[in-house]
Specification:
Elements: E1 2-6, E2 10-16, E3 21-22, E4 26-35, E5 38-44, H1 57-68, E6 72-77, H2 80-91, E7 97-103, E8 109-118, E9 124-135
Parallel strand pairs: 5-7
Antiparallel strand pairs: 1-4, 2-3, 2-4, 2-6, 4-5, 6-9, 7-8, 8-9
Length: 154
């Protein structure tokens, strides 16, 4: 079952291993897919590539994510609507597991096992536990079905 958490753009903050960070990304079409205990949050980041100014922070941060996806440490979304709807779905499931899929259009998609937690000032943070899938090629392949086993890509 799929639920739309938010369709309009929302500001994202990403942090990478070794202290790198980015604040210029916008996510849209936050969709939560529920399958038994597994929740998959998909975030569309393709609008960050749709700019004429290739020096814009959104474009540069999106390119940086495509190159350094394996170093992602956490993603923060300051949107309280996304937070509230995710918490509501989370509380309906006994021992839920969450994964996050970042869609970058023709630049691929990246899936992570994540642990969410609410932020004191509002919003939600997704701490990356493990890289599950990295499709950095030009084709938009679907994520493989979750079978309980994971592999880490570096």
């Amino acid at each position: 079952m799929k639920y739309s958490l938010r369709k309009t753009p929302s500001h994202l903050h990403l942090a990478y291993k070794y202290g790198e960070a980015s604040d210029g990304l916008m996510g849209r079409h936050f969709v939560l897919e529920m399958h038994e205990r597994l929740l998959t949050l998909s975030i569309d980041l393709t609008p960050n590539f749709h700019t004429r100014n290739k020096g814009a922070s959104a474009y540069l941060d999106a390119v940086n994510l495509a190159h350094n996806h394996h170093k992602l440490r956490y993603l923060q979304c300051s949107d309280n609507l996304v937070r509230a709807r995710l918490i509501k779905a989370w509380e309906q499931i006994n021992h839920p597991q969450l994964r996050m899929c970042l869609e970058l259009g023709p630049r691929g998609h990246y899936a992570y096992a994540v642990q969410p937690h609410s932020l004191f000032m509002g919003g939600i943070q997704f701490d990356v536990q493990e890289v599950l899938d990295a499709q950095g090629t030009g084709d938009r392949a679907r994520m493989p079905e979750f079978d309980g086993t994971t592999t880490e890509h570096a």
